[in-house]
Amino acid sequence: MRDTLNQGLIDFLKASPTPFHATASLAKRLEAAGYQRLNERDPWAISPNGRYYLTRNDSSIIAVRMGRQSPATGGIRLVGAHTDSPCLKVKPQPELQRQGFLQLGVEVYGGALLAPWFDRDLSLAGRVTFREGGKVESQRVDFKTPIAIIPNLAIHLNRGANDGWAINAQNELPPILAQVPGGERFDFRALLADQLGREHGLNADVVLDYELSFYDTQPAAVVGLNGEFIAGARLDNLLSCYAGLQALLGAEGEETCVLVCTDHEEIGSTSACGADGPMLEQTLQRLVPDQADYVRAIQRSLLVSADNAHGVHPNYPDKHDGNHGPKLNAGPVIKVNSNQRYATNSETAGFFRHLCMAEEVPVQSFVVRSDMGCGSTIGPIIASHLGVRTVDIGLPTFAMHSIRELAGSQDLAHLVKVLSAFYASQELP
């Protein structure tokens, strides 16, 4: 099972270079499992035991498996994750022609580690909005092959590179795509129109706009002397999206279960399709339209907010509290912060720990050092919007927010097992 899950994750990462592609990948797998797509603009006819999903902005997705009884009496088991990762996004007028080279101006999305982006084989993917035959449409694109690179400056010309070099995002990050003859102007939107034709057979009259980002073309892989690790891009947080999907598709309980994977977590979740927007609340209210029943349902529910945790790095052990250094391949991590950067409390942590013990899944704890700031995730945001009890958890990883991250190859199976038990749980605390 472990090897099958890991290969499935590797395939999912390859098919999901952007939140648009990740959402489409999740939707494809849900439809194959019999889930019916809902349109937010249409009336819904929800039935017990029904299986449904919906998307918003093509970059966030909610999947619902209705139970036999009303959520007002049985509650809702929610698992939350996010589809976005730090990256380099192409600017609206990106064309740069300098020293005979074609480059594209980029904007840093999220809290990216920038140094690893240098000297990588990059491709480009995202969503393009265009006009065809007088109609405005949008379509995903993925160039797939390496079309760009950000070369480092040689050490001979940057002697201080190993002494804490501050990267200037405006000047030093534009990737190089090609050499161009002097005086010849390059039209990036014409390139996108050609890509729409090659990839989808579309004949765009004009490319109106786009949301595109660069990504590393090196595929994820199982690495290590004994295959102990998974290395790949966007493990934060497509790893949790994939684990939640596998748990939902394999769960056999009769309770109402929800998987929510939202965009824009890396920049605060404040958007129409982010966790700080109304998407999840509006969806749950339509599933339970009676207001009193809705409040009862929320108070009987629990959210497992799944987002990667910081594993203790052997080269930097002092970055962790001595008693709270999660190890790779030692199971999911319960994340705690007394200032509510995580929404975990003793009751929700205890319930998650109980599930792990019952399933013989190892479990760990993380608290940030008292002299360091703590990150956050969608858990506190959703908890404050819905009033739902929440536990923040995640699998330990290294190099979070790098272009290539590292996780334990045993931990995905651990997380899928405990999330499956959560979805099947008869009673919540």
Structure, explained:
By secondary structure, this protein is of the alpha/beta class. It has helices at residues 2-14, 19-32, 71-74, 169-172, 188-200, 235-250, 279-287, 291-299, 346-358, 378-386, 411-424, and strands at 36-37, 51-56, 60-65, 76-82, 87-98, 101-109, 122-132, 135-142, 176-179, 206-216, 221-223, 229-232, 256-262, 302-306, 309-310, 333-335, 364-366, 389-394, 396-398, 405-408. It folds into two domains: 2-85 and 233-424, Aminopeptidase (3-Layer(aba) Sandwich), CATH 3.40.630; 87-216, Aminopeptidase i, Domain 2 (Roll), CATH 2.30.250. It is 28% helix and 27% strand. Strands 1-2-3-13-4-14-18-16-17 form a nine-stranded mixed β-sheet, with helices on both faces. Helix 6 crosses helix 11 (411-424). The two termini are 30 Å apart.
Quick structural overview:
The chain is an alpha/beta fold. The chain is built from eleven helices and 20 strands. A nine-stranded mixed sheet has the order 1-2-3-13-4-14-18-16-17, sandwiched between helices.
Largest β-sheet summary: 9 strands, mixed
Average pLDDT, all residues: 96
- What's the gyration radius in Å? 22 Å
The number of helical runs is 11
Using the 3D structure, state the CATH architecture of the largest domain: 3-Layer(aba) Sandwich
What fraction strand?
A: 25-35%
Structural class: alpha/beta
What key phrases describe this protein's structure?
single chain; 429 residues; alpha/beta; Aminopeptidase; Aminopeptidase i, Domain 2; nine-stranded mixed β-sheet; six-stranded antiparallel β-sheet; 20 strands
